[in-house]
Amino acid sequence: MERKITFAQYGCGKMGKYLIRYGIEKGAELVAAFDVNPAILGKDAAEIAGDGYPATGIQIADASQADEILGNLKPDVCIIATRSTIAELEDIFTICAKHGINAITTCEEALYPWNSSPALTHKLDKLAKEGNCTLTGVGYCDLVWGTMVTNLAGSSFKITKIHGSSWYNVEDYGIALAEGHGAGFTPERFEKEIANINTMSPDELKELIESGQYVPAYMWNQNGWLCSKMNLHIISQTQKCYPTTHTADLFSTTLNATIKAGDPTGMRAVVTTKTEEGITLETECVGKVFAPDDFDRNDWTFIGEPETTVSVNRPATVEMTCATIVNRIPQLIDAPAGYVTTDKYPYNEYCVHDLNTYVKSK
């Protein structure tokens, strides 16, 4: 592509700060920005990008104006950095599809929603094909739980099991997520409200998830992505939730309360996927109020020949998510129309030059 890629930023919060700057500095042109926060509406997008960032001339508009503005501008890409479930993004994805605008999002479920929201994903896939554009979800998990894992698998002769573990501090993500992980619950409440799925059969849990009545842990979607990328055929998939605890009292700034020793500090959600090929994936998310010695970490172990373990400790999750999205933009533009998850993309690469120079087909 000879001209600059044009992009809109939908969501100008914590992620938007980096996405705006990374996009501009990789040679793309910001043409619109949206948010719902009254405190930043009307401001130049540069104020979100950081102190001293040169003015962009693009004022942040109310998200309610996205349909009209995007329909008039028709940028190459809309970057969405708002919510965590595919249902919460249906409206903006639909707007982008209607106007033929490629869209890429930080939404965790959007990485592989085929196994958690299949009906909605098929609906969005149809709309995107009609609009001749591509919708997808990308982020830190695309690399650290995805392409890093499948690339490393290429160094194995035989794999019988893949074990993955990701730890994160619920204090970093707000009260809704902390409570969703059971932080600060009593053991009895945790058992009733979170661990109640543990007795369900795989078919019962699958039906509950696909009906939209239960949002699974992030690894539910990730295991689906990994199996698709590795051409594994799933026999069954289950999720179990267990409370995490600490031996001493912990004060949570997010909950503004002290969690007593032995009470749930959060949740360990374990997703087990069995495949026809004999490879089992056992992956877990450990989200909790961190004790003083805890830190964000990711550990992946391949059991087989040879046995291999790789660890990524203290990752810069926000920055890695945003950089992965921006580097994926040329592949997004080149991808076929529809809801196309990144297991169908080439491996991501670092864009040394301006993004438009990597676009091949359009």
From TrEMBL:
Domain of life, source organism: Bacteria
- Protein's recorded name: Dihydrodipicolinate reductase
Organism annotation: Ruminococcus hominis
